[in-house]
Amino acid sequence: MLFGKKEDRPQLDMERLPAHIAAVMDGNGRWAQKRGMPRTAGHSAGSEAFQNAAEYLNDLGVKYFTVYAFSTENWKRPEEEVGAIMGLLDRYLRKAIREMTEKNIRLCFFGDLEPLSDSLKQLIAETNEISRHTTGMQVNVCLNYGGRAEIARAARLLAQECAEGRLQPEDITEAAISRKLYSADIPDPDLMIRPGGELRLSNFLLWQNAYTEFYFTDTLWPDMDEAELDRAIAAYQSRKRRYGGI
What we know:
The protein is of the alpha/beta class. The chain has seven helices and six strands, in the order βααβαβαβααββα.
C-alpha cells in the first residue's frame, strides 16, 4: 500500500490521467477537533476542499469524480452533526446552481434520496436539470449511499424484471447488474483516494472498485490540496494495471 508523503509535488503525465477518480471525504471531524473547533466546522472545510478538488480535476481533464458525501450509516451520528451536513449540502447546491454552468461541471447524485427533506430534493432536481446542459467533468455525489444497498437495489430491480417475464435468470450477468447500479453508463473508477489514515472501503463503490487502484494517505480531507491530489495521480501513473492478467 502506498501512502501519501510530503515530498515535492510530482510531475504528471497528462497523457495518462485517470478518467475516473473516486474519493472518500474522510477526516473532517478530526481536522476540526485538532484545531479546537466543533466537528461541524470540519464539514464546512471539507465542503470547500471538495469544490476546490472538483475544479482542479476538471481543469486537469479528469472526466469523472465520485465522492462519498454521506453514507447510509452516517444517520447514526449525532443529530446536530447530521443537520449541519445537510445544511452544508443545501448551501453548496444553491451555490452550484449559480456557478455550475460557468464551470461546465455536471453534478449528479448516487444513493437513496427519498429520506432527504423536500427542499433538498427540490434543489437536487434543479441541479440535475442544469447538469443536462453542461459537458465538462461529471461529479457524482454519493448521498445516503451504501455499496451493499446499491447492489441489493440492483438485485431487486433484476428480480422484478424476471418476475414480470422480461428477463430470464440466465440473463443476469455482470453487465446486467452494472446497468442497474447508480453508476450505470459511466466507467468504473481508475483511482480511489482514501484520506484520513483509514485502510478500508467503508461500503463505498463495492462493485465498481473491483479493479480500482487505491491511494491511502494520512492527510485529512480538508487538507487535500492540489499537491496531494497530484501525488495520488502520480502514484496511479506509477503502476501497471493487469486486470488479473500477466
